[in-house]
């Protein structure tokens, strides 16, 4: 039998052991962690909607009429009119012909990629794509070719030298770096090489683009340009679940073929109605996004002035590059001693030697919160080598 205990010990020695932090109370910038209050800069609740009263009320108001449990898969008797209503709402929000509601983004990626590509086909996947995309590629049994991050000439060469059915898949906003994929160039390349383009905009939906319609909408890319658009609902949207949007033919096909859609219990209908309420709010109020943008701008200015190395990101994902695992942990722990929660992200979530603090912003943060973060970062500056100093 494998020596599981030794494997865990090796992880500890390498600074890679992970633990779960116990949170009580609602998700918001002011968290209570193991009884201690902390100001959090690591959630994906970018618009501060995870505990918004209107959205909570939409769920609780719905439940006497819908009940709580999903009870069955969509193809047996679980497809509730609340789910159907949300799908129409998501299609309108993304400007697509139709949408399909999945239980999680992880399942959406696994189901969509494995349904749309199979043995003998080739999938081209950005090297920094999310784990759920990587796993979807493996599940598909297609040949997988990873291209260097956002490198369009490398991808063009790979597409030109490959025959058969081709699928290109990318994050819209990259989850650990915060940069946005070259979507326009990807759409052109895919058209040239007759490849199907799949964009996972988990971190773009709600955050970028007109009225938060995402990174694909920001560039005005149509359903022909990006035929398969995936988004998640547990991040900026503040609820739970995910969707795939595109031509009616696509969603019809996925209902037949996507196993993670077919063989799982439908989400509680009340979650679908709460998500509709969240989308209404997001479309109505641009103020959250503009506040978020000013936090990001001021953070970048402040943290750069302190000599921290940032990534080329204009989204609420603002990593501070550190390098080695132990320094990332030390910086995270020093910030926690000052009452701030910013988690260290280590391999395999990021490449080896690229450990970082993944700072994320929420519209729920005040400018005073940002000042607290910058003051604490000033205190901790000596813990990491900056771009100007030799790494130790
Ligand atoms: C978070 C994330 C997912 C998974 O979504 P869940 O709904 O949390 O399962 C998928 N893709 C990307 C890029 C993500 O960041």
UniProtKB/TrEMBL annotation:
Classification via Gene3D superfamilies: Aspartate Aminotransferase, domain 1, Type I PLP-dependent aspartate aminotransferase-like (Major domain)
Recorded GO MF terms: 8-amino-7-oxononanoate synthase activity; pyridoxal phosphate binding
Pathway: Cofactor biosynthesis; biotin biosynthesis
Pfam families named among the record's database cross-references: Aminotran_1_2
InterPro entries, per database record: Aminotrans_II_pyridoxalP_BS (IPR001917), Aminotransferase_I/II_large (IPR004839), AON_synthase_class-II (IPR050087), AONS_Archaea/Proteobacteria (IPR004723), AONS_Proteobacteria (IPR022834), PyrdxlP-dep_Trfase (IPR015424), PyrdxlP-dep_Trfase_major (IPR015421), PyrdxlP-dep_Trfase_small (IPR015422)
N6-(pyridoxal phosphate)lysine, modified sites: 235
Complex and partners: Homodimer.
Official protein name in the record: 8-amino-7-oxononanoate synthase
């Amino acid at each position: 039998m494998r020596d599981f205990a030794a494997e865990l010990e090796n992880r500890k020695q390498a600074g890679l052991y992970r633990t779960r932090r116990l949170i009580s109370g609602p998700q918001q910038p002011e968290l209570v962690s193991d009884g201690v209050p902390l100001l959090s800069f690591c959630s994906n609740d970018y618009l501060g909607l995870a505990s918004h009263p209107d959205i909570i009320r939409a769920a609780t108001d719905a439940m006497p009429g819908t009940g709580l449990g999903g009870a069955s898969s969509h193809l047996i008797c679980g497809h509730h009119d609340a789910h159907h209503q949300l799908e129409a709402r998501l299609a309108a929000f993304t400007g697509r012909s139709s949408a399909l509601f999945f239980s999680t983004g992880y399942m959406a990626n696994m189901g969509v990629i494995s349904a749309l590509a199979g043995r003998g086909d080739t999938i081209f996947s950005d090297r920094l794509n999310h784990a759920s995309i990587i796993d979807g590629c493996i599940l598909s049994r297609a040949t997988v070719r990873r291209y260097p991050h956002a490198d369009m000439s490398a991808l063009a060469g790979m597409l030109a030298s490959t025959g058969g059915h081709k699928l290109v898949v990318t994050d819209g906003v990259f989850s650990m770096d915060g940069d946005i994929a070259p979507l326009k160039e990807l759409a052109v390349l895919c058209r040239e090489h007759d490849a199907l383009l799949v964009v996972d905009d988990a971190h773009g939906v709600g955050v970028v683009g007109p009225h938060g319609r995402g990174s694909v909408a920001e560039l005005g890319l149509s359903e022909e340009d990006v035929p398969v658009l995936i988004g998640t609902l547990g991040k900026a949207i503040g609820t739970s679940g995910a969707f795939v949007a595109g031509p009616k033919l696509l969603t019809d096909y996925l209902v037949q073929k996507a196993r993670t859609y077919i063989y799982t219990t439908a989400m509680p209908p009340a979650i679908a109605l709460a998500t509709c309420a969240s989308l209404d709010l997001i479309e109505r109020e641009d103020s959250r996004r503009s506040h978020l943008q000013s936090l990001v701008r001021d953070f970048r200015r402040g943290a750069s002035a302190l000599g921290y190395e940032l990534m080329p990101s204009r989204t609420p994902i603002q990593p501070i590059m550190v390098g080695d695992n132990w320094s990332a942990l030390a910086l995270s722990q020093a910030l926690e001693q000052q009452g701030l929660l910013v988690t260290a992200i280590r391999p395999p979530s990021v490449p080896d030697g690229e450990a970082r603090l993944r700072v994320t912003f929420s519209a729920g943060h005040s400018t005073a919160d940002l000042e607290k973060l910058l003051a604490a970062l000033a205190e901790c500056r000596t813990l990491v080598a900056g771009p100007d100093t030799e790494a130790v």
